């Protein structure tokens, strides 16, 4: 009797202990989850900002970037927050309006001041890079170029940011930083080698090439086959990024941006005329009068200069794609090459390798022509689009595209044909390789261009070595904490059950 009472008391006790323990563990788990969710939130991110002004030949654009300070050496973390196009022409055309530079810059710089929190203004680096327009001016009139750059620096210093320099970048830098931007945004620099692909095949880490078309220059940059890296050392750049070596080919063709190429074409076309030029690259019914001084003031057209008895020319459109293509073909001299292969004008070009991202005017023009969304984006498709587009009368086009700037609209036939000629005759993209060119404007909301790569380099955000991997993320931490707590609870309950059960069993057996 005593024994039965005793064992019932024990059973009742162990049941209560189990209930109390189970309840306590349940509360503990809820508390852990609550603490994990509320207290273990990551510290408020320390965001850094940077501003780059791309002072192009046709206009200036301002890009505002942001990135978490603690992740700055990772790839792909810098994001473009905003951008702003400065109203007016490029800075190389501002020589007569130097006193207006502050007004010229102010709208976009004020936007940057608004987008970046005031507490960060003083430590936000600002860089200005001027490209081919200033390169040309510098070659033509060094003093004037210096005056403009000094004035630009003086103007930018009036804003509350940390101006780290305004300078004219070289064509090689422009090409290289465009290549860095594309590959950074696509995460190519940190592609891991997989266990089954543990070889030294040079194609296993393929980066994308970069094709940039501006108004005054155009750049081609890519990682060629290893054997092709020795022929022309002046075209080679060597990088050590995230623990890997890259040998990159680049060339910048000054005067082959689309605006200077048009001037070259006109300067050549005028030869032997009486001042009236019937031009197949402009639409039927289109007319434009140009000053000869505007055509010949750039050094790009000097090779076609002659004394003319007229100081203006009249361009009369004669829309015809095939004739336009033939006239542009003449701008690319492919008759001599002292290397194993050349693009044009005797410039070395290794065998094309991998995919290419084509941006800036490559994209603007082909986007307008609806080629970027074409299902069969090859050379023949583009030729057919252009054949149809160039033959359309100017009046009809103007009515259809009321919202497009007349200057751009009138030049899309020329520009599209120029792009096709440059890729085909200039860089030798064939039917087979054409589909490796991808026309792009943005990758994950960041504009593709040299400016991001320029900032990454100047802020030392691309390390030579692969950054060490980070500890657990917040969500993984919470998950693991709850998971292991649950295992612990199950183990303790099981242990209690096993620890208590034998006492009845032993008793029953006895
Ligand atoms: O919406 C557009 N449609 C057509 N062309 C455009 C548009 N926006 C910009 N462009 C052209 O893109 C080119 C940009 O050149 P940029 O000013 O960057 O010169 P750069 O890189 O040679 O210094 C210019 O030829 C400009 O006219
Ligand atoms: Ca540009």
UniProtKB/TrEMBL annotation:
Protein name: Ectonucleoside triphosphate diphosphohydrolase 1
Species: Erinaceus europaeus (Western European hedgehog)
UniProt keyword Metal-binding, yes or no: no
Family statement drawn from the similarity comment of this UniProt entry: Belongs to the GDA1/CD39 NTPase family.
Predominant location category: membrane
Top-level taxon in the UniProt lineage: Eukaryota
Catalysed transformations (reactions): a ribonucleoside 5'-triphosphate + H2O = a ribonucleoside 5'-diphosphate + phosphate + H(+); a ribonucleoside 5'-triphosphate + 2 H2O = a ribonucleoside 5'-phosphate + 2 phosphate + 2 H(+); ITP + H2O = IDP + phosphate + H(+); ITP + 2 H2O = IMP + 2 phosphate + 2 H(+)
EC number annotated for this UniProt entry: 3.6.1.5
Primary gene name: ENTPD1
């Amino acid at each position: 009797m005593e024994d039965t009472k005793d064992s019932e008391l024990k059973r009742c006790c162990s049941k209560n202990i189990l209930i109390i323990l189970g309840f306590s563990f349940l509360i503990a788990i809820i508390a852990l989850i609550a603490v994990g969710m509320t207290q273990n939130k990551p510290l408020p991110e320390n965001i850094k900002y940077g501003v780059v002004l791309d002072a192009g030949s046709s206009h200036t654009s301002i890009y505002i970037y942001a990135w978490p300070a603690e992740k700055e050496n990772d790839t792909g973390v810098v994001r473009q927050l905003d951008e702003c196009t400065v109203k007016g022409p490029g800075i190389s055309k501002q020589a007569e309006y130097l006193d207006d530079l502050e007004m010229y810059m102010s709208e976009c710089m004020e936007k940057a001041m608004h987008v970046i929190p005031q507490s960060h203004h003083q430590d936000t680096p600002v860089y200005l890079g001027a490209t081919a327009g200033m390169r040309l001016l510098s070659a033509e009139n060094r003093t004037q170029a210096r005056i403009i750059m000094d004035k630009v620096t003086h103007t930018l210093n009036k804003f509350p940011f940390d101006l780290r320099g305004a300078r004219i970048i070289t064509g090689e830098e422009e090409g290289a930083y465009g290549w860095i931007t594309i590959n950074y945004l696509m995460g190519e620099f940190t592609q891991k080698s997989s266990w089954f692909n543990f070889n030294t095949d040079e194609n296993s880490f393929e980066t994308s090439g970069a094709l940039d078309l501006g108004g005054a220059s155009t750049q081609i940059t890519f990682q060629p086959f290893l054997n092709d890296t020795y022929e022309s050392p002046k075209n080679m750049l060597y990088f050590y990024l995230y623990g890997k070596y890259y040998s990159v080919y680049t060339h910048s063709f000054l005067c082959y941006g689309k605006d200077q190429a048009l001037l070259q074409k006109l300067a050549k076309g005028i030869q032997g005329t009486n001042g009236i030029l019937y031009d197949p690259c402009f639409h039927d019914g289109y007319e434009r009068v140009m000053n000869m001084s505007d055509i010949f003031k750039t050094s790009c057209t000097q090779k076609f200069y002659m004394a003319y008895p007229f100081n203006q020319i009249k361009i009369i459109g004669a829309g015809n794609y095939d004739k336009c293509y033939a006239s542009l073909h003449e701008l690319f001299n492919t008759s001599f090459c002292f290397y194993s292969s050349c693009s044009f004008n005797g410039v070395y070009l290794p065998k094309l390798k991998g995919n290419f991202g084509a941006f800036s005017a490559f994209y603007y023009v082909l986007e307008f022509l609806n080629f970027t969304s074409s299902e069969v984006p090859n050379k023949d498709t583009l030729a057919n689009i252009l054949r149809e587009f160039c033959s359309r009368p100017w009046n009809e086009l103007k009515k259809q595209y009321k919202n497009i700037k007349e200057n751009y609209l009138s030049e899309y036939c020329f520009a599209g044909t120029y792009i096709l000629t440059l890729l085909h005759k200039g860089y030798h993209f064939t039917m087979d390789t054409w589909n490796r060119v991808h026309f792009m404007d943005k990758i994950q909301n960041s504009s593709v261009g040299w400016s991001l790569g320029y900032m990454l380099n100047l802020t030392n955000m691309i390390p030579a070595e692969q950054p060490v991997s980070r500890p657990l993320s917040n969500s993984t931490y919470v998950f693991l904490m709850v998971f292991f707590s649950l295992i612990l609870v199950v183990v303790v309950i099981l242990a209690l059950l096993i620890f208590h059960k034998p006492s009845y069993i032993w008793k029953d057996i006895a």
